[in-house]
Design brief:
31 helices; seven-stranded parallel beta sheet; about 700 residues; five-stranded parallel beta sheet; elongated; alpha/beta
Amino acid sequence: MADSRLPTVQTRLAAGDADGARVLADAMLADSGLAMSDRFGALVLRSRAHEAQGDLPNAIVDLEGALAIDATQARIWNELGLLSADAGMNERAIVAFEHATRSDPGYARAWNNLGNALRAAGRGVEAVRAAEKAVAADPRYALGWSNLGAMKRDSGDDGGAEIALRQALTLEPNHRGALVTLAGLLRDRSDLPAAAELFARARALDPRDANAALLLAGTLAERDDLADARAAYAQAEVSDPRMLRAVFGRCLTLPMVPADAAGVAQARDAFSDGLSIVEREAPLRAATLSAERVLDEMRWSNFLLAYQGGDDKPLQARFAGVMHGLVKDRAPDWLRPLSPRVRAGSRIKVGFLSTFFRDSTAGRYFESWIADLPRSDFETFVYHLLPGIDPLAHRLAERADHFRHCPWWRPSQLAPRVRADALDVLVYPELGMGTVPFALAAVRLAPLQCAGWGHPVTTGHPTIDVFFSSAAMEPTDGANHYTERLVTLPGIGTRYRAPQVLADATRERMGLPSRGPLLLCPQSLFKIHPDNDALFARLLRELPQASLVCFEGRDPQLSAQYQSRLATAGIAADRVRMLPQCVHDDFLRINTLCDVMVDTLHWSGGNTSLDALACGLPIVTLPGRFMRGRQSAGMLRLMSIDGLVARDADDYVRIVARVVDDGGWRDDLSARIREGRARVFDNPAPTAALAQFLRG
């Protein structure tokens, strides 16, 4: 028969009297005649009393003592795993959960908890297997399905993730975790209305949830629902006044597709005014934040600012100054200078950190920066922040000495991981595109920290020492546009692999007009400044049989806004063919079917221009003041095809008209482009120069 004192201890615990329960359990355990089964029960109950008192170390000791008496108790192993995880001892948690699942292979919750612990340890494949066993043990376990969906998303299996998440919501329609994870997946897939609806549902289930409001606000902003986005940011602030990202969003959100040039000017003025609010409020709201929370709350970037055609250096420097001040006040150790290592013949340790190490513009640009560094001189570290490993990321994993896969890691998790690697140099290839790298760039993780031109605008960060750019693309006064030291690399600044082009498409197959010249504007809609509208209208008046070919935005609302803008400029709807987003191979096929690429003002083509050149498609460009408006011109001049670089808008229209009307000249241009490809593609000089600079 069980000791009669055990129910009393349980009653005290249930009543919230942890102190009383612990005292009674102490008395029981002091009884040398206590039966082993009762000692087991007393240790378990005292462990729970310790936990209620916040004493996790002693709670763990007591459960370990109980399991030394009876190691077959799966529920107690699971309890020990949860305590160990809460105490930050994840490896011990994994061991405990493994014991639980061995003791009871049908224990769904233990499999689920094991999956979570393995996920936290970065063991993604094993985590998915454990989560699959959880839902196999209990197919009606909504939390298990939700966690399986999150883990499959980590692995890059979005299809499997969606199936699991929708199953969770079938079982439990108001499961907030599944709602938020599925909304994030749909947002990344550009189904913004559906994502917003799910985030709003999650927010309604708990109006105090600042994170759901923040995610809803960001989704609304991506489809230019700016008033509703700012309202959602304000709701997040009400729920958590210390959520700096909500302050940034309310004050600094910019339009994706401005209505006109006046709208751009108004947005920049509003941004500057909002920045004044941020400068005043952010330090006050951060005054009680931990160092870790401060790093995580700095996840923001002014991505859209760079597409507005203005001088961003003062604004970027002001915002980076806010971030620097926050780190200095709340996390000063992360600004501690790091002395260069005494290498004594050892290799130079260079890290590359990005949210775009996949088949993307930035991935294609900067793969060679990593792959081409001589391993005799350099030890390379790659920090891959996205879920999944696509073929490009797999090549990097094979080439790098150390490949750190850190999907969804926060800055507070990444900073110690990177600093522990004791790098000599840390390179951020495209600072300003992802929010996590931009936050990390505000701290000191290596003696030398560098930004690449994947997002060609100054970071403003005093902790970024060097900005790598393209010698062919920078203007003569380029150094004045950066707070960092500008270092230009030869050619386009990277060894860019020429894509394989398949000329096997027809206009009909690709959804293009069957007749008339095709003027390709391949840029994302947020990159097309309103100043381009009048220029395109002039082109179409000059070429009455031609059509403008462009691509839809991430959301139908953005496409409609751009079409409205073109109509205001006097361009009839039947003169524009707006194509759906497509895979890269089809994008190249579309290039082969067009007559000319019409480059955009202020922000010229980069990867899109390289794709056009790979297809032999002539590009007409009008260089701007900043490097980001001079990329196509730099490429053409490297090929000695200066005749496609316009002096002004009149010259631009004249050149485009000649390319379209003079088939012989167009064919000659295409031949010259193909002959000059070696000066742009697969040129080893830029990466050799990068290696030489890093050697010091």
